[in-house]
Every structure is written in C-alpha cells, then in structure tokens.
C-alpha cells in the first residue's frame, strides 16, 4: 500500500538551475508517495523538467504548483508551471516536434504532452504562460523488477 | 414578527435540543467506551473476527482491539455517530483495511466481513446494560441505540475498506496473469526471448516492454527476441508498440529481433505500409537465435564435433 | 538524504583508463554542470589523446531533452576529436520515457554496462589485434 500521500499543494520557485533540480526531486517524491509506478514517475519528472526549464529559459522564471489529487481513486498529481514572460504567440508552432526557439531539441512542449495524461496550455502574449499537466496512477500495479 | 415566526422558532428550538440530547448520549457512550476499554478489548480479542486475523498472538489482537475502541471513543465524543468520514476513524482505517484484506485473502466476502464486525456489538451491549443498572429505561435505550448507530457506522467504514481491498486484490491478480502470460526466457548467455501470445493491447504492451527491459538488465542480454507467432493480428498500433520496445532496448544497448512473422502478417505489414525501419526480422525463433549467436562469434553447425 | 548540490564540473568523476575516459554521471546533475562537463571533456580528449569515452548513466534516474542534447553533443565533439563515445547503463524507465518523448538519439552508441562499453570500444578500434573476442 502506498504511503499516506501529501495532501497539501506546494509551490516551488523556478528561478535557477538548482531550482530545477529541487523541482525534480520534489515531484519524484510526491509521485512515489502517491503510488505512481517507476516508469510513470520517470515520465512525470521528465515532463516537469522540460516544462520547468521552459518557464526558466523562455518565461523569465516563475513557479510551479504541485497538487496531489487524493479525493477518491485513482490518485493523481497535478503540476502547474506559471510564468509572467512574453507568452507564446504561435501555439501550434510551439507544439510541433522539433520546433525550438532556444537551441534545444525542440521537444519540450510536444514531448511533455505525450508523457502525461492531461495537458493544458494557457498563454497570453505579453502577459505570461501557464502549463498545467495531470497524471493519474494506473489500476495496474507497475511490473515487478526482475524474475524471482 | 408574527405568530408563524414564533412557531418556527419554537420548532427550531426543539430540533436543537433533540440534537443536543443525541450528542449528550453520544458523549456519554464515548466516556463509557473509554472506561471499559480494557474489558471490551479482551472480549473482542476472543471474537471470531480477531481470532481469524491475529492467529499468532492474542496480545497483538488485544492491541488491535484497543485501537478500534479508541477510534470509536473519539468518534462518539464528537457526537457524529453516523458519519463514516469522521476523522476519529482515520487512525484505524489502515488497520481495518489490513484486517479486511487478511479476511479477503482467506476467502471471506465483504458481507461476511461486515457480519463479523456486527457481532462485536454484542459484548459491548452486555457491558453497557450491566453499567446502566442504576439509570432509567429510557436512558438505557438511548445509549443502546447510540451504540447500535456507532457500530453500524463502523460496519460501513469496514465495508468501504473491504471493497477497496477486494479491488486491489483483483488488480494484483490481473497483474500476475499478465506477467505469467508474457514470460521472458533466457535462451543463451546474452540472449533473451519473449514469446508474445494473444492480442497486444496498450496495457499488455506496456507490461511486456517493462518486463523485457528489466530482463535485459538482469541477464545482461545484448539480444532480445520478440516472437510474435502467437499474435493473431498485427495492425499499425501493434506495430507501434513493438517499435517502441525495440527503440527502448536499443537506447539501453540491446538489439531486438522480431521473429515468428507468418506470411500473412508479412503481407499485412507491407499492405498497411508499416515501416519497420532498421528492425531486424526473422521468420522463426530459431533463425533469430542463430543470428544472435553468430553476432557473438558463436557458430551453430549441425555436425559439431563432440569431444 | 539528498547530497548537497554539486559545484562545477569537478564534481563529475572522470577516470582515465588507458586510452579511454570513463565518466560517471549521478542523478543530481544541474544544467550548468552538464554543460561545463561537455566542455571539460572535449578539452581532456584533446589534451590526453584519448580515443574512447564511456559515459556511465546507471545512476541517472531521468534524461530529458536537455541532457539528451548534452550527451549527443558530447559524442559529436568526441567524434570530431577522433574519439568514440559509448553511453552505458541507461535504466529501463529512462529508455521508455525517452522513446515516448521522441528522443531516440540516433547518433549515440550505447551498451548495457561499463564492461560491455569498453569491449565495444576495443572491438571498434582499427588497430585491434586478432579475431573478435566472444562476449562473456
């Protein structure tokens, strides 16, 4: 049975490299505590890393809200990446695999979307961007490591 | 304010005092439970339910009983006798869950478990009656009613946990079934194989992929053979799942070979325009194994000399 | 208990094994540290004349597009400096996530562990004597 999950939302700043590492750590812990399997945890943390970096690099910094969803089954985790940056002017373009405005591999937004169950992008050029992703624990427990 | 207002105020006042009376009885029940904690726990420890769960140590059973009495005590003292979400139950929810899980595993259904909990009421009622010797019949009845309500709520809380642990059991058994259906076999030093049988839906593919990759690490397998002889149809979705597995294995440093491609499947793949890319394919598992061995410098020959 | 955050690239251990450099990455790799490492490795390869690099990521629990890029570029830099790179020890969960992310890192050579990675580099060397050795 998974640990009693943290039931309160947390807000973490996204303003530096060290912040990104901390965000990854906290989300890993939160996901594990909620009963997410190892693969799901890794997908969540990876998506979070992409989105947090976007917030830092393109959004000029911001914060992330981590909300455990524990009312009923299945349990879930919601992450909201908020910045007050320039916003995204062409959403469709930004969501295309390979598109990048910052020298990366351009998979941040579109890739993250594939790693989570729900994805919502809210942006206003000149005001800022909020990306909210949610994942739910699956009914099937994760595969046990190795054969006994 | 007219007559009607005064009348409605009167009704309200009556409702309030009724509620107060109920809460007062409930709190009285709480006090009783706290006072008789040890005795109740001792009697419960001998009840069929606790005997069935705590087979090794009666002391453990007594501790568990005390925990339940404490929880009931807390709920009673807040006056919320019929609230299954009462925080007082929180401290024992896990324990109740484990108890009903234990009963479930030995074959007891939710209804039977609830009955076993219902039977716990009797010893407490006896003690309550003995204690109420000096009080009025009305008061005694009120207390017994409160006890009945509280134990009823406990049964509901237990039914909740019994149902969800039953669900967990089903999920675990389903997982075990899926794993048994997709064993990963170590064929040779550095070579593993997965004979895929049946339809490859998204859930199964995920399990197959995870099992296979874990085996690759555990067995240090540089080659993984995915045999699809037992897969009835291969459409673009199945092909996608297979490709993802191959890609993941490749990232880890292992090469996949897909074997068991029947002529009909080959035609479907071509017809659907599925691009297998650089994935290696072989008609039979034997061919795939021969390939994997040859890549490691091992030659398989029908007339190998026996020393 | 998580260890304190690492400083510059000096925190990433780089061992010289003959003509091969062995780099061991850990789970708490900051972006800046990764980039410094990339530069540092290129310099070390040029300085030492190493012909092989093994990057051990068995301690890494997540690879995103940034780290993926660092790995790909490190290998590309090494290639220009006439050295071959092998990334070893990728965890299953990481591999599955990378595939889902769409990051297949096509130019990257990978192996299951350090030993197999070193074997691979030895086999690939043009001056390797005799027949290919059987894998253990």
UniProtKB/TrEMBL annotation, chain C:
PROSITE patterns hit by this protein: STAS (PS50801)
Q: Which domain of life is it from?
A: Bacteria
Q: Which Pfam families match?
A: STAS
SUPFAM superfamilies recorded for this chain?
SpoIIaa-like
Q: Give start and end of each STAS domain.
A: 10-121
Q: Which InterPro entries match?
A: Bact_StressResp_Reg, STAS_dom, STAS_dom_sf
* Gene3D superfamilies (alphabetical): STAS domain
Q: What is this protein called?
A: Anti-sigma factor B antagonist
Q: Which organism is it from?
A: Streptomyces griseoflavus Tu4000
Taxonomic lineage from the root:
Bacteria, Bacillati, Actinomycetota, Actinomycetes, Kitasatosporales
